[in-house]
Amino acid sequence: MTSVQAISKDLKNAGANWVDEKVVTDGNLTTSRTPDDLPAFSERIVQEFAK
């Protein structure tokens, strides 16, 4: 998964496999970092719903 950098340590401590990427899809979960990544997130969501 991905998220804002500020909570990456918390997510890792909770067991997440955290990466610093615009958008990440793992199974049915799609995550992104910030509102700046919204275009990439939107494109991925469309791809996922098209499956």
Tell me what portion of residues adopts beta-strand conformation. 15-25%
Strand order of the largest sheet: 1-2
Q: Give the overall form.
A: flat
Order of helices and strands: HEEH
Q: Which consecutive residue ranges, at least 5 long each, have pLDDT under 50?
A: none
Number of helices: 2
Helix content: 25-40%
Compact summary:
37% of the residues lie in helices and 16% in strands. The chain has helices at 8-13, 38-50; strands spanning 23-26, 29-32.
Your description of this structure?
This protein is α+β, with helices and mostly antiparallel strands and 51 residues long. 37% of the residues lie in helices and 16% in strands. The longest helix has 13 residues, at 38-50. It is flat, with a radius of gyration of 11 Å. The two termini are 20 Å apart. The model has no long low-confidence stretch (mean pLDDT 97).
Keywords:
single chain; 51 residues; alpha+beta; two-stranded antiparallel sheet; 16% strand; flat
